[in-house]
Specification:
Structural class: alpha+beta
InterPro entries: Kinesin-like_fam, Kinesin_motor_CS, Kinesin_motor_dom, Kinesin_motor_dom_sf, P-loop_NTPase
Number of helices: 15
GO molecular function: ATP binding; microtubule binding; microtubule motor activity
CATH class of one domain: Alpha Beta
GO cellular component, one term: microtubule
Distance between the termini: 22 Å
CATH architecture of one domain: 3-Layer(aba) Sandwich
Mean pLDDT: 76
Protein name: Kinesin-like protein
Family: Belongs to the TRAFAC class myosin-kinesin ATPase superfamily. Kinesin family. KIN-14 subfamily.
Shape: flat
């Protein structure tokens, strides 16, 4: 099959692709699908009888077709047998999962009953123990409190005498401090008066400067009117020149004089503008000085108010302390009387304490018996918890193996994987108080893979490879695609793109908020993983070279986001004026790689370098405000990382490509309220997304002609949608009830994408030096 491709290298790429796709591959896949359909009934009966061990499953995953290179029929038969075995293995693991779930439920019920019995006995023992301890502690506390009160009263009496002596000393110091504070207050008042006088003088000067500024503005307008008169005279002179040819020489002299007058008026105008700017600078300086004086005045006023408040507080504290001293003397007499009464009560409490100690001995005997029963129940509970943890571990391992089998089947079929993500409700959403329109099935088959959308009372169910609810974090989302990103280092072409209506969270999923580590998007996290993995593989002899490019498709034109700011500004002006700027041409080579001419390609060697490039691209990307989104992406953003790896020990070379794409959001003109440039952008976005939909329809129907050339977006994604790439699509959904219609359209489109077969991914390895140009897949 591969030699056939080499023999047809002279035929044009597009024509050869149509012939091969329309004949060979479609017949092979249809044959496999018919055989799979006929074997479904028998496989359900076999999975109940056959059992698999972990080694058998791993051997089955690593099994490959062993037929000759030209024995296509033998390869097809061996591949169908492998797929049948994989299906039987998957069904067997589903049954094992169900039995594990039932065992887990039985163990949890028995554990709950044991915990209930243990908690009841523990509560009874605790209540008895707490009652006895409460009586003992109450008696001890009464004794201690009485002793503490007696000692405190003695100490308080001594403290009161000492405080009275200190108050006399403090009163003398306070009077001296009051005299000094009055002197400082008088000084502050004098400074305040001086500051007020300075403020009034500055305000008068500011008024005079404003009057002078207005006079300059009037003079400027007069100069402008004189300039207009001179221009009108010049235009009249030019008209007379065309009508009266015989007076040409005289009119030229008149025109020259008018031009001299115009130049002199312009020079005088420039001088007036310079004089105006200098005066404005002086006014600003005076305003800053005036503000500084006002701040000083406010600070002095606040200090004087604080000093006055401190004086009042000190007077109040002196009066209170003398009154408290009289009260303490009266209290000391009453406490001496109560002390004698408390001594008699202490004797009675000592007798009660002896009785309570005898009662406590009897309770200790009953507690020892209860503790033995408690230890037995605790040991039983630990055994049940160990069994439950072992069951959960087996379930986790089975789920990982199921995912691996599922991914292997998808790779063999060549389907596009689809993940669905629902963003949380935002404060600006109008349907917060209404019933939720999105639900997640809880059945074993659809758990984590199904989503239901309710519209007008009708439920629309969908099933994808993975569904993330509104509570999923960026880390959880990236964990599911981390192995796919790893494939780029292994030499595969990988494409991940986000699709959905505007405001559904596509840019947050792809880019996130890089300044917050927890909210980083898929692009920064993918790059961090690739650099970490490439560094760890250096110990095995691998060396990697990485190149980055970023572009956007805006109004069906390509823009380079890594060029200089001046070039971007010139290109944006040209695009707005509908003139031709720099032309970027998309081409595909015979190996299925895509190249964009004149595109800026940057060699990168660290994650920090890529982060700065991402920040530069984010600032250059086209965004705008609509009724549906404050910062709506008005273009399709394409990030490409090409990876070239060389193993010095084995001389093996790999070439991988990672495409991460943030598509612009589809929107309805009736809801977005787009006008002017926004209207033109919306029409271009909807047109390119419609072309993408046409391509998906053609691939799903396995038509001979797929309209990739209808849009620059689809032509750029041609290797990802119709080649040998590992492709994953994120469909982003808004939970707002007013967006239910757009959410249904996005989910239906995603379901069609999930059903498309684009071919089996092929690893790119070679023993020659790789091409240094950057490709898109």
């Amino acid at each position: 099959m591969f030699k056939k491709k080499e023999a047809l290298s002279s035929i044009p790429f597009d024509k050869r692709r149509k012939e091969t796709q329309g004949t060979g591959r479609r017949q092979v896949l249809s044959t496999v699908n018919r055989q799979d359909a006929n074997s479904d009934v028998g496989s359900t009966e076999e999975c109940g009888k056959v059992e698999f061990t972990k080694d058998e499953v791993l051997a089955l995953l690593n099994e490959r077709a062993k037929a000759g290179k030209f024995d296509t029929k033998g390869k097809i038969e061996q591949m169908t047998d492998i797929i049948k075995k994989l299906k039987v293995c998957v069904r067997w693991y589903q049954q094992v999962d169900e039995t594990h779930v039932q065992d887990k439920e039985n163990l949890s019920s028995s554990l709950q009953s044991a915990e209930k019995r243990y908690s009841d006995k523990e509560l009874d023992a605790k209540t008895k123990e707490e009652e006895l301890r409460a009586t003992i502690t109450e008696m001890k506390e009464n004794i201690e409190s009485l002793q503490e009160k007696l000692s405190k009263e003695k100490l308080s009496k001594l403290d009161a005498i000492e405080n009275h002596r200190r108050e006399k000393d403090c009163r003398v110091v306070a009077e001296k401090l009051q005299v000094s504070l009055r002197e400082e207050l008088d000084k502050v008042k004098e400074e305040k008066m001086a500051a007020k006088q300075k403020v009034t003088s500055l305000e008068d000067m500011y008024k005079r400067l404003q009057e002078y500024n207005t006079s300059l503005q009037q003079y400027n307008t007069k100069l402008q009117t004189d300039l207009e008169v001179a221009r009108e005279a010049h235009t009249r002179a030019e008209k007379e020149k065309s009508s009266i040819l015989e007076n040409l020489t005289t009119l030229r002299g008149h025109s020259k004089s008018l031009q001299d007058q115009l130049a002199s008026s312009r020079v005088s105008q420039d001088e007036a503008v310079k004089q105006k700017d200098s005066l404005l600078m002086e006014v600003n300086n005076l305003q800053s000085e005036l503000q500084q004086v006002r701040d000083d005045r406010d600070r002095h006023v606040v200090q004087s108010q604080k000093l006055a408040g401190e004086i009042l507080m000190y007077k109040e504290s002196v009066g209170k302390s003398s009154h408290e001293l009289d009260i303490l003397i009266a209290k000391s007499g009453s406490l001496e009387e109560t002390c004698s009464l408390q001594k008699e009560r202490i004797k009675m409490l000592e007798q009660e304490l002896a009785f309570a100690k005898e009662k406590l001995k009897m309770v200790d005997l009953s507690m020892s018996h209860t503790m033995t029963e408690f230890e037995e129940q605790k040991q039983c509970m630990h055994e049940l918890q160990d069994r439950l943890a072992d069951t959960e571990r087996q379930l986790f391992e089975g789920e990982l193996l199921r995912k691996k089998l599922h991914n292997t089947i998808l790779e063999l079929k060549g389907n596009i994987r689809v993940f669905c993500r629902v963003r949380p409700l935002l404060p600006d959403d109008g349907g917060r108080q209404e019933a939720s329109v999105i639900a997640y099935p809880t059945s074993t088959e659809s758990l984590g893979r199904g989503i239901d959308v309710v519209q007008s009372g009708n439920k629309h169910p969908f099933t994808f490879d993975k569904v993330f609810d509104h509570g999923a974090s960026q880390e959880e989302v990236f964990f599911e695609i981390s192995q796919l990103v790893q494939s780029a280092l292994d030499g595969y072409k990988v494409c991940i793109f986000a699709y959905g209506q505007t405001g559904s969270g596509k840019t947050y999923t792809m880019m996130g908020r890089p300044e917050t580590p927890e909210q980083k998007g898929l692009i920064p996290r993918s790059l961090e993983q690739i650099f970490k993995t490439s560094q760890s593989l250096s110990t095995q002899g691998w060396k990697y070279k990485m190149q980055v490019s970023m572009l956007e498709i805006y109004n069906e034109s390509i823009r380079d986001l890594l060029s200089t700011s001046r070039t971007i500004a010139i290109e944006s002006v040209r695009a707005d004026s509908s003139t031709s700027g720099r032309q970027y041409t998309i081409t595909h080579d015979v190996n299925g790689n895509t190249h964009v001419s004149d595109l800026t390609i940057v060699d990168v060697c660290s994650i920090g370098q890529i982060s700065s490039l991402l920040q530069q691209a984010a600032q250059s990307r086209s965004v705008g405000k609509t009724h549906m989104n404050e910062q709506s992406s008005r273009s399709h953003f394409v990030f490409t990382l090409r990876i070239s790896g060389v193993n010095e020990s084995t001389e093996q070379q790999v070439q991988g490509v990672l495409n991460l794409i943030d598509l612009a959001g589809s929107e309805r003109l009736s809801r977005s309220g787009a006008t002017g440039d926004r209207l033109k952008e919306t029409q271009a976005i909807n047109k390119s997304l419609s072309a993408l939909s046409d391509v998906i329809f053609a691939l799903a129907k396995k038509e001979d002609h797929v309209p990739f050339r209808n849009s620059k977006l689809t032509y750029l994604l041609q290797p990802c949608l119709g080649g040998d790439s590992k492709t994953l699509m994120f469909v982003n959904i808004s939970p707002d009830p007013s967006s239910t219609g757009e959410s249904l359209c996005s989910l239906r489109f995603a379901a069609r994408v999930n059903a498309c077969e684009i071919g089996i991914p092929r690893r790119q390895t070679s023993a020659k030096l790789l091409d240094s140009r950057l490709s898109y897949g």
